[in-house]
Every structure is written in structure tokens, then in C-alpha cells.
Amino acid sequence: MEVNVERIRPRLRGDVYVMRVPEGAYIRSNLGGSMLKGASTYEWIQRIAPLLDGTRTLGELCAAVPEQSRAALAKLTLLLLGKGYVKNVLDDRPHTLTADLAGTYAANIAFIEYFVDSPELRFERYRDAAVVLAGAGPLLQALTNSQLRSGVRTASVAPFAESPFDRDRVAEHLAAARALDPDQHVAYLDAAADDRLVAGAAMVLHVADRPMIERALRLPRAARAANAAFAQAVAVGDEAWIGPVIGKDGDATAWESAWRRLRALAPDLAGADLRDHPELAPSEFLRGPTVALVANQLCFAAFRHLTGIDQGQAPDRLVRFDLETLETATHAFLPHPLALPAVPDDPARLAVLSAAPPVDDEELGRRAVDCVDARTGVFAEITERDYEQLPLFVSEVVVSDPVGLAGGPFPVHGCGESVVESRQRAVRRAFERYAAVMPDSRKGERLHGVDVLTGEPVEVEAAAVFPARTAASGGDWSEAVRAAVVAAAGAGVGAALATATAPLPRLDLDGAELTARGARYRKLLAIVDQPFEVYDLSGLLGLPTFAFTTPEATVAFASGLEAGAALEQGLELTLLAYQSRAAKQPGYAPEPVPDLPAELRGEPDHGRSGAWPGPVTLDDVVARLTREGGRVVAVPLDHDPGVARLCPFVAQAVVVHG
């Protein structure tokens, strides 16, 4: 294909380095390295490099050299262009930077060029942008120095009072900067009022050497109201949290979401109360070069944003800087519902749920990846730890406490016949438990649910829903509703036992129609020599329900619409209880249940030889739950909209009277 040399204005990238080698020339840049063979290649590159300054088209360059050299010049230039070492700047927009300024900030301009077009113009706009620097102490001093060295014409500084701010030191920084760039200067602003501080700013940068959390929550909103971008670095303990960068049209609540997610996994964190703490001393590691490193990170984030390098990147990342080790890590987070504007509880979502496409365990596991982060995640981790993986595989998910209702982050576990299954079950349980402790009180004292039998929308007292002690989920809404109703019925075991007046039948599993999995579990219990007994509570609860006891304790009560499913669940929990005890790993033991009193433990075939409870319908269970009146209402646990989009089918079933 013929190339139009008049449509190419070549410029050699500023990070290109060329070295002579026996084969010809080795050329490299941040894009990588290449070997260009030919005895005269190195000399040719050295000769044409000064010409590749972007001021002339390739046609003009060829016209300026002897005719016999034109083909070689064009060929080598196009080769370098194809490999990325030369850039076509024909469409770059004009700028007014002087040659001296372009030379002074050549490295900055070259960095911009690596990512986007028109680097000189972008740097010029950055230089002239009104950036407000707010904060206190050495961090603000270092940030001012970083901004001056990055090339801003004016550093507008607004000192707060919690840490001493050394204006003389800033004057020294300015003097050093003006030796290279005489047009630079520092202007001081009054930090007393947020609206005056951010007025006219293109971007606001905030630093705090201690947890000034109330201010850190307030300033992004003020910047957004003033149509300014925002980013900050807040030191808490021996860590500094930098970012996220919030564009002028971005989400002003992003930092609040990040902080709320952080404290949901670390409730004892200084500033977890969302207040300023000027009385706390800065970290002993926040001094000397560490201060400069934190400031440089924030300055670099602002440089990338204002020059357009990070265009299109969502503000859902926070950088953690360890002040002791100087290590950095990036942490992703989802929006926190309490950082977002309040949304009334909407009954229309009930119809949307019933028509929503299903989400199976495999898909739910993939979606859970977006929720995992050790510091800012909905879940801190999904792991097998050092748990025994025989006879059952066991996985753990550490769940955050989003509004402080659970007393801190907590683990949930899943088990199964493979690590994939145990992880999928643990993830599903984690979504259920998270949704159960995530009420948004701003939705009001009454929530909307759906009558399980009629589908009619029904209002329910929020206090009857949260915390949701029998939350359940499913692959779709109808499955979640069934699971929630069964869980609600099964939760009545304690009350049912209190009404029992005769011993409960002890069952012989030889006559039971076990599922294939249930039969395997029974065989495994025999192999590990774990004795157990099964008692039938179905008559007390109105659906197949069984108690599983061992010589050590009552380990489980299991309910289901069918006896086989309930028996499978109980046998699995009995096997899990054995594994936990044998491995001395109580962390994943089944949750404690009421003990089945000795006087209620009947003999085998107690008056009903060979009788097993038959399957029941959802209507049967609802009838039992409402035998004293009322209706059963399923309420979706979706107060965290971001998490609910990932796992939409979580419900709590409650009995409503009136």
C-alpha cells in the first residue's frame, strides 16, 4: 500500500535510546526493544533523529535530503513509525509553549505523549489549570513542592490548622522552582469556608496527616458543586490512602464509599466514626522522604487526570501506601449504599425480580470476584485457609459488616464434595449473610414485600426484616422465596420443641429414600465410625424436619419440602461436625442448635414403623406458618444496590398480621 508522506509528520519519542551493536542498532523505549539489522543502520538513525522533531512532514524531510537518500530515509522512518518509536503528530493540536518551557518540562511532555496526542497542549493546559492544594503540615508543604516541580504556573495553597505549616520552607521550594521556571508562584487561600476555597478551581487536592475524616467527606462534595475535580491523600495510622480521582462530573461520594468499605472490614480504625480527629498524632513514619512520596503520588494522580491520561477510568480504586515499608497496593471498592443518596423502597422492583434472568452458582462465583478485596471489599477473601479437606472440602468467605449491625466482619463457610462446590456454596452464603445485615434505615420504617401465595405487594415493618436471621437465596426469585419460607419454618424448631408432649420417633435410615449424595454421606459417616441418630420433627413443624444427634451433641436440625433433601442436608452437617471436631478446627463447625432433650428422644419405630414424612408444597408450609392467622411475605434483601445487581435473589420470609 502506497503511503502518503505528506500525511505523516514524524517525531521521535523522547524516551527512545539507540545503541550500536555488531548486527546494526538496538533501539528501545518504554514500549520495548528491537534489533534493526544493517551495517549503516545506527549511523542512519543518528543522522535522521534530529530531523524527526514533528515540525515537518515526511515529504518535506525527504525533499530536504539528496535524492539518492530519500528512499532510505522514508523506509527507516516508516519502520520506526510502525514499531512505535516514532509518532505521527500531524493531527496534534497547536500550543503556545515556548521552546525553553518545552525543554524544561521535556520529561513531563514525553510522558504525556506516551499515552495521548497533543502532549504540549495538554501540558500547557495543565500548567495553567487552577489547582487548589488544601491540608496541613509537612504533607501540604511537600504537595506544594511536587506541584511546582510538575510545572503548574500557580500553586494555590489553603493551610488548615491541625499541623504547623512552614511558609518559609515553601518559599525555599518556590525559589528553587523559579530558577528553572521564573513564572511560577504560590498564592495562599483562606481555608475557613469550603465554598470560597474551591471557587474557580479546576481541581482540588487535599492532604491530611491524621484522620480528618469529616473534612475528607465534605471537600469532595464542595469540589463537585464548584465543577472541580478532586483527589486526596489521608494518613490513618501507619498507612496513607490516596485517591480516588473524582472528575468534575464524577461521583462526589466515591471517597466516602471507599472509606465506609474500609471501616466495614476494620471497625476499630481511627476515624471509623466519620469524624475529624485532630488530637491524634501523625504516624512516626510520616516524615522525611515518606512525606514527599505520599505527596508525589497524589500530585501524579492529578497530573494524569488533568492531562487526560486517565480519561475514562472509573473512580473505584484507592491506593494504599504503607508508611513503614513504602509498599503500595491498589484496592477496588463498590459504592456503599449509605454514601449514595437515599432511595425510597420501591414496590415496583418486586415485579422486576420475578422476571429477572436466573443466576446460577457458577455465574454467582464469577460475579463475586468484583466483591473481593482484603481492605475495601464486600468480602475480604475467599479461601480454604489450612482447613482439613477430607471427607468434605471446606471454604471460607470473610464478610464485611457494612453498617455495624454484625459486630464486625465475620466468616461464613461452605462445604461440598469438591473445592469448586465448597467455594460456590460459601459465596452464596456470604451474599445471603451480607444482605441480611445491610439495612438502609433511610428507606423508612416499612418495606415492601410480596405475599408468597398471591403475589400481592405487602408492606412489612422493617424491624421484622432486619437483621434477617433466616435469609435465603436462589438461582431465581421463586427459588429464593421457597428457600426463605423453608428457612423461616425451620427456624421454629426451638418453639416447636417446647410444645412437644411425647417422645419423637427415632428413624432407621435403612428404610429412607436417600438422595445419591445423602447415601454417600451416610457411608462416609460409617467409614469414620461416627455414630448418630435421627429423630423426626415433621409433625411439629408441618414439613419434613429431622434432628441429628451424636454422642457429643445435637448437631443439626434440617428441613426441606422433601424428606430426601432434608436428610441430605442433615447428614452433611453431621459429617461436617465430625470433621471439624476431628481436625480440631471449630471455625467451620455447624452453627450451634438447641439440644434435643433426652425425654424427647424416642425409640425406633415409635408407633409408626416404616412411616416417612411425604413431600409438602409451599402452600402447605405457608398454611402451617399462618395457622394462627396472617400471611407469609417475602421481602427482597436488596438495600445495597451494587451487591444486589450481582446477587439479586436474596429474601427474608416473615409472617405479617393485619
From TrEMBL:
The protein's superkingdom reads Bacteria
Q: Which Gene3D superfamilies does the entry link to? A: 3.90.930.60, NAD(P)-binding Rossmann-like Domain
Q: Where is this region: Disordered?
A: 586-614
Q: Where is the composition biased (Basic and acidic residues)?
A: 598-608
Q: What is this protein called?
A: YcaO domain-containing protein
